[in-house]
Amino acid sequence: MRLGLIGLGRIGAFHAETLSNLDAVETLVVADAVPAATASVAEKFGAEPADSPEALIASGVDGVVIAAATAAHAPLLRAAVDAGIPAFCEKPLSAVLADAVSVAQHVEDSGVAVQVGYPRRFDPAYLAAYDARVAGDLGWVHTVRSTTLDPAPAPRGYIETSGGIFRDCSVHDFDTVRWITGQEPVEVYATGHAHGDPMFAEFGDVATAQTLITFADGSTGVVSNTRYNPRGYDVRLEVHGTGDSVAAGWSDQAPLRNLEPGSTWPSAQPWGFFMDRLTDAFRAELTAFTELVSGARTESPCTVQDALAVAWMAEAADLSLKEHRPVTIDEVK
Ligand SMILES: NC(=O)c1ccc[n+]([C@@H]2O[C@H](COP(=O)([O-])OP(=O)(O)OC[C@H]3O[C@@H](n4cnc5c(N)ncnc54)[C@H](O)[C@@H]3O)[C@@H](O)[C@H]2O)c1
Predict the structure, then answer these.
(1) Using a 6 Å CB cutoff, which residues line ligand 1?
(2) Ranges for the Gfo/Idh/MocA-like oxidoreductase N-terminal domain (predicted)?
(3) Quick one: 181 and 317 in the same domain?
């Protein structure tokens, strides 16, 4: 197939490498707002450069991967579905919730297949935890813990336009806990602080946050995030039920110093960043998108409604942090 890729920054250049190695992708067409980025990625991965996102969409692509900066997601998603082209869109749909609601409605009205980028849904251990819950092996799931600890803050320009830690980082955990438990969240309580680079306080953001979630069936979730975890990129999950307890991300590369006497775990080089921690998940995620484009897969593995549910959680967490009180999802809706 002929696949487009728009946005060639940190994640876009990484996706270019993955996509150029997928058997299903015969031609990769790339475009970035910065022409030098387009030229360099096209040359590096043998891709076809397009002069602009509009030119790429008009160039007869079968599907398009949108990995541009967050502010460009909604307009590019609209342009893709208006042209009848299936799209993969990196999270979030938009940093502005009203915009996310409106673009999600636009996608639904178009009937065009769209997959939103939440790669943990494709991590083998996360998938096994999901399967165990669906199979009933865990009994009634009363507690889910999801953790994302970044080694260091992203550049200032990224943080400034990210929409804050809940919309940028915690959303991965919010999607995970909702997907893994199969439960809708009803209330969140978030706390955090801006310790670290002064830019966090300047942008009204925090560098570390914890979010407590109550689900519709009364079960509970705990989400932990920070921009400062110099030991490595820590992405982990624990699911505890009345039948069993399971975990994901507790590999030999977990970025933790285990102080149990005599234990040599974990012994390998810790995960450095999302590129090495989630390489296989990203490949599986983009493979799923090519299946959606070819028709081999009929249902999006992560819909705009899933992304919207997560956006409501982020909105509630943000309000909870600011007002220092529990906030229901209904209230922000
Ligand atoms: N799913 C994940 O795990 C994951 C990981 C990292 C980033 N992301 C998301 O991916 C997006 C990009 O993140 P990043 O870290 O690569 O950012 P980045 O700043 O490194 O790159 C963004 C790129 O988009 C380009 N761009 C901006 N507006 C554009 C437009 N209108 N048309 C074409 N190109 C445009 C910029 O020139 C830049 O090259 C963000 O929305 C982020 O939330 C997702």
Answers:
(1) 6-12, 32-34, 37, 53, 67-70, 72, 90-91, 117, 119, 158, 168, 274
(2) 2-118
(3) yes
Counting atoms of ligand 1 from 1, which one is nearest the CA of 168? 43
**pLDDT number for residue 133:** 98
Task: Assess if residue 267 is contained within a domain.
Answer: yes
Q: Which atom of ligand 1 is nearest to the CA of 34?
A: 37
184: nearest Cα among 11, 29, 316: 316
Q: Is residue 296 part of a domain?
A: no
CB 252 within 8 A of CB 231: no
pLDDT band at 162 (very low <50, low <70, confident <90, very high): confident
Q: What is the CATH number of the domain that holds 208?
A: 3.30.360.10
The 10s digit of each residue's pLDDT in 94-148 is 888 999 999 999 999 999 999 999 999 999 999 999 999 999 999 999 999 999 9
Query: Burial code of 213-239, b = ≥16 C-beta within 10 A, e = fewer?
Result: bbbeeebbbbbbbbbebeebbbbbbbb
Which residue segment(s) compose the domain that 84 sits in?
2-112
pLDDT band at 275 (very low <50, low <70, confident <90, very high): confident
